[in-house]
Amino acid sequence: MYVVEAVDLHKSFGDVKAVNGVSFKVREGEIYGLLGPNGAGKTTTIRMLIGLLKPDKGYALIMGHNVVEEPIKVKKLIGVVPEEANPYPDLSAWDNLILVGRLYGLPDSDIRERASNLLKLLDLYGVKDRKAKNLSKGQRQKLLIAMALISNPKVLFLDEPTGGLDVFSARTIRELILKLRRGGVTIFLTTHNIEEAGALCDRVAIIRGGRIVEEGSPDELKIKVGAYTYITITFNKALEEGRLDFLEPYEYSLQSSKLSIICTKPAEVIVKVVDYAKKSGLEILDIKISPPTFEEVFMRLVKG
């Protein structure tokens, strides 16, 4: 079952086409990432998905409900944590949750039970009476997620959920995201932390210039860019750039005695380099072979 569907979404601001024909489908219970550089159209796409912006063309569905035509039904199904948001600073963590629950029109008994459970889940129960402005940044971020979950949404939209957090707080948020997914919540995630997306997301869409250029699991995208292998070879002395013409078919860089090569056939390349070393009287001190990181895959896809 698809719980989020974007169908040929378009949005322009004056002469600027922010989103230009974006389409994708998010399955129930998965973590789906929308990744791209600044200005690629991520935020505009999310705002259309959650009903803050009306598309110029196309439409979005949340569990079969049209976002523009059925906004109330959609808002009852989603929770949203924007990139730039804060809890009400002079209210306690507990009162923030009670307020949001009442805004959703939930019965007080349900709100209190759910608020208590969420505070315990997020390890905030011990600071539930502390004003939001006196919480740490990591605690405020967890409180924002709790506020988005108070209505028991089917889909949770997270925009840069770990941005600006320390290592420990970011790890806690990532563990929470995985726990929510195990509990059946569908997560729609945007982040500039590409390795984080690669570790968390079941599937990702890469957006560039307002268009989706690739979509698939992180492993599938590694295959799509050609399954490049990264080879780093260290020699006993500096190499001469002019004598590396045999590497012209490959992408490589040289830093004194360290040669870095990107290729799809590492064995073939290593044989050539070993032969070059023998003829040049060089000694190979170290060879490192590694698969591409997801960040490197992302960079290749974004650059086209």
Fold and architecture overview:
The chain is of the alpha/beta class and 304 residues long. The protein folds into 2 domains: 2-223, P-loop containing nucleotide triphosphate hydrolases (Rossmann fold, 3-Layer(aba) Sandwich); 225-303, Alpha-Beta Plaits (2-Layer Sandwich), CATH 3.30.70. Helices cover 35% and strands 29% of the residues. The protein contains 10 helices and 14 strands. It has helices at 42-49, 71-75, 93-103, 108-121, 137-149, 167-182, 194-200, 218-224, 266-280, 294-303, and strands spanning 2-13, 16-27, 31-35, 57-62, 65-66, 78-81, 155-159, 186-190, 203-208, 211-216, 229-235, 251-255, 258-263, 284-290. The strands form 3 sheets. It has a 6-stranded mixed sheet, sandwiched between helices. β12 and β13 (258-263) form a beta hairpin. α3 crosses α4 and α3 packs parallel to α5. The longest helix is centred in the middle third of the chain and has 16 residues, at 167-182. It is elongated, with a radius of gyration of 24 Å. The model has no long low-confidence stretch (mean pLDDT 90).
